[in-house]
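pasting for ref
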Amino acid sequence: MDAGRLLSEVAAALSAGTIKVVDLTAPLGPDTPVIALPPAIGKNTPKVEVHSISHYDSDGPFWAWNWLKLGEHTGTHFDAPVHWITGKDLPDNTTDRIPPKNFVAPLNVIDCSREVAADPDFLLTAEGVRAWEAKHGAIEPGSWVFMRSDWYHRNGSAETFLNADANGPHSPGPSTDCIEYILSKGVIGWGSEGVGTDAGKGATLQPPFPAHNLMHKANRYGLASLCNLDQLPPKGAILFVAPLKFVNGTGSPVRALALVPSA
């Protein structure tokens, strides 16, 4: 295959509109919902703050710019392996050392929106993934798996997005055997529409928070607070997602994009 010709054909298709770009990213600002951890577990990430440096004024008459205060794991964000204790000693485990070829990969999208509409605590299991594969084809090594839940429609309100009560948060995610199974397929990452990559009841699973625990133990990646997965096909999209090159970064807000064939 002539790689140069292939890239030229992709560029032409983008120009012609036969391939379109889907933005998978939530708006990032002071109203972005952030995870709320119980005090017994640890400190919480701060909400996003935006501070003006100048705005066409005496502090800078011809330009506008701001400085920001935000956590690495805020909004639509990338989890590097070092984010979790199971990945802390692995090679190339921080945002500045991940090989850039890992930021572009095929994408599998498993639609669980109907199940989640009926049960916000829904867990995608290995059995559910295998049923999806029987219909759409095998998950390829080096690809991402996304769980579509349509949860992103709640993102405008922290209360509905986090969906917590006295018993804790209620949001969908993967079971332990789901993560074990997709890792056996050689995936590069797992993504979800919730505030984190695990379900709201992820702390009650074994091991706790399996998407974090097992994915990062395998030197693999996570994406959270994804949007617009309902605009993606089950197979055939290409994901582009790159964290900021923070030195020793555990993660980063991202602009996640997918290339898909136009309808």
